[in-house]
Amino acid sequence: MNRTVHFIVAFLLCFAGPLWSQEIDILINDGHVIDPKNGINGAMDVAIKDGKILEVARNIATNRAKTVVEAKGYFVAPGLIDLHVHNFYGTMPDAAYSNGWNSVAPDGFTFRAGVTTVVDQGCAGWRNFRVFKENIIDKSKTRVLAFVNIVGGGMKGGEVEQNLSDMDPKLAAMTVAKYPETIVGVKVAHYIGPQWEPVENAVKAGELADVPVMVDFGVSEPVLSLETLLMEKLRPGDILTHCYGATVGRGHVVDDQRNLNDFALKAQQRGLIFDVGHGAGSFAFTQAIPALEQGLKPNSISTDLHISSMNGGMKDQLNVMSKFLNMGMTVEEVIERSTWNPAQIIKRTDLGHLSVGAEADLTVLDLLEGEFGFVDVQGYRMDGDRKLECELTVKGGQVMWDLNGISRPHWTEQ
What we know:
Layout: H1 2-20, E1 24-35, E2 40-49, E3 52-57, E4 65-70, E5 75-78, E6 80-85, E7 115-121, H2 129-135, E8 143-149, H3 169-178, E9 183-189, H4 197-209, E10 213-216, H5 226-233, E11 239-240, H6 262-269, E12 273-274, H7 285-293, H8 317-326, H9 331-336, H10 340-345, E13 362-375, E14 381-395, E15 398-402
Parallel strand pairs: 1-4, 1-5, 6-7, 7-8, 8-9, 9-10, 10-11, 11-12
Antiparallel strand pairs: 1-2, 2-3, 5-13, 13-14, 14-15
Helix pairs in contact: 3-4
């Protein structure tokens, strides 16, 4: 009997032991990890098990992993969070971004750019948010969060977004309460007129629901004061998107002499959030470059992804991040403003980091060096020598994008 037991133990140690030791599903090996929340900035391994971060450490044994991704020479970051997109796409006529053709399906634009979470900005209002959730949010592989529009009918354009009587703070706040895992803020946009009621109603809804407000401070007739908006109407934690826009009919952070307006830095210091929201009409080098040179860096970097921006100067999240790299920000800064910063802005601190036990959302990025061109919404080019490219994206422990097959065995190994 003893000889039999000894034989079984020896067999298990020699043959079954190596299999049992593979408790890691995916090991991202020897990459340069940048995790702003946890203060990590250097060579590190990241182990994933059952869709969660299992371990972040140096020299994790590769024989513990079922799949090893060699990431030497790459940056490894938390899955990117795009704070400003438009994803309520559909076929309704004259519906613009709210179940219409102006919005786009998220999955075709996210993972290939390292993005695992997007925040739809006000496409749906309280009247049609359920349709948005059932048709798009619940069916997307990308994690789709949302701001609810202060307009009950959502972002349908035209007269729908000019209807002051449909901007109900109580009903907007009730909608936030109904979908607490999905709705993370209130959006106001596209109102044309001298009234402050749209902003004031959005802020009331934000107060009732305890969520931030994002303002698309677009064209107004007459022009409303950007200083008044930032210093009097919005609260710390509220968001000005399109912060480097040069649109006619709105205030700007940089004046005609390319001097940064004093109130811009004061507003940021009092807790206002400056979001890029590049889009098809809301990012100009004549605003962004002088603003950065004079100290106004964005709190968050986002795309304003929609049908008109996706093939223009914006392109995707990494292209926008690369612009800021070439305007003087560091890799660490652009990653922080695309991960941990937006997670805190929307009060979703479960996201945007690689803490042990967190959802295993991460991206592996290559920093290319060469000659590149970047275009703003006014049609002007800026030359640069660095550009980020996504090699691999993992969401919830699953490989969603693998540009060059770095997570896959060679065909000869089968």
